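In practice, a research group might receive sequence data for several interacting partners and want a quick structural hypothesis before committing to experiments. The following worked case mirrors that situation: the sequences arrive first, and a predicted assembly follows.
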Amino acid sequence: MSQAATEIVRISGHSGTVPGAGLNREYQVCKLVDTTTCIGCKACEVACLEWNGYTFTQTTFDNSYQTMPETAWNYWNLIKFNEHEREDGSMMLLMRKDQCMHCADPGCLAACPADAAIVQYANGIVDFQEANCIGCGYCMSGCPFNIPKFSPKARKVFKCTLCNDRVSEGLEPACIKACPTGCLHFGTKSEMKELAETRATQLRDNSGFRDAGVYDPPGVGGTGVIYVLHDAKHPELYGGLPRDPHIPTLVKLWKTPLRWLGNFGILFGAVGVFVHYLRFGPKVVKEDESKSTGEGL
Amino acid sequence: MNHDPYLLPNGRVLRYSFRERLIHWMAGLSYLYLLLSGLAFWTPWLFWIAIVLGGGTVARELHPWFGIVFMIAVVLMYGMWGHQMGKSPSDKAWWASIGHYIRNEDDKMPSADRFNPGQKLLFWGFLVNGVLLLLSGLVLWLPQYIPWNLHLVRPIAVFLHAVCFLFTVALFIIHVYMGTAMERGAFGSVIRGDVSRAWADHHHHSWYQQLLRNSTTRK
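A structural hypothesis for the assembly, expressed as tokens:
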């Protein structure tokens, strides 16, 4: 995004063409996670904690290599481990780095009722603005990936920022920088998509993973984090990656048709009783008993 | 009729006891907070209400607690009024002549008991919607305790909470309009508790006649 400030479109008193004009620069950033080369070292988890200033806290042992059952408000990056038995009886340890997917069509943002608590930048990063967050947790109901987490202490919701603070300075996210195997890549969406497809083809053609493919779910308009999976037909195997994620229909119904219907109904009701009063007036009881004094208040 | 608990010595009729008034306002004022904070979360156009209520975070924090207060009041109301809110044979005729009621042609209305069928609708409407709001509200209050394999419950709660909210708003608008502007004397009855005899006879004829009969038998 910051490159836009140095991109020249017109030059005064200049003969000839404008260098770089008409250049089609892509701002959409993307993180590529190649699960096939992840070794589960958790360097990304540590880098995430370090950069974002959280300290490691007590966790739950789940009889697996996984650090904790799911991401937490102060633990945004978690490798999910699954001991998967294949059809031929052999074992595979599937490891997937779980974090915010930075959906093009974010369910958290759709569900959020607080003004400017969630923003989506032109580079695709979906970021929570904790100063504006009211802690209602509606984002947790709108997210199909179980990412936003409530902090009981701060009474607000937190999640991965895709290191927005680093990316805006031209740096790669902390997790990418820490990865020792190169299974994590960072670049523009089209670059990452191309790299991912190349890798998937390689897996299909040379490594015997017939169903290898790229996870970039269209249900949420594509994501700012994409995966290469050995078995793209069964994304659930990778720590419960949803097969066809989308914004919950009821959240969409609530935000658009129901809200308009409701606003109309409330206005109709308020205007309706006012018009009724103008037309018919109050119900006044004639006091024929001289003892009682009529009106109640 | 000197010591009759309902026919007061000053010639007025006790419509709502202190306990009834207190519980009514416990529900009324907590609902008002719920309504205002709820409207703030309902549409961005009204989010400014949250600022007035102490900011979005405070309003979000207090909203569920007011919900608990409201539901306690609703349960108390059920214990207090539930047995008087049953269907009575004349209800059908009352609804059939609702047009007269709306046009203030009250002389053409079948006589009402202590609570007329409209008030019964209000009572049951708030009770049923209140229970649904409580259930969905609990999910929205503490979504982090809904396990992920039950996460479909969360959007259901979001939607149900909004739908039930709208039903209560409809009931609330009519209730407040009738209780303040439309039915003169009604607001006083829920503040001070008493109404005039003519009011009692006019709006709740059957109830008033029953009070008179009880009073004579008591003598």
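Before designing any experiment, note the following. Residues 14-218 of chain B form a domain with the Fumarate Reductase Cytochrome B subunit fold (CATH 1.20.950.20). The two ends of chain B are 7 Å apart (CA to CA).
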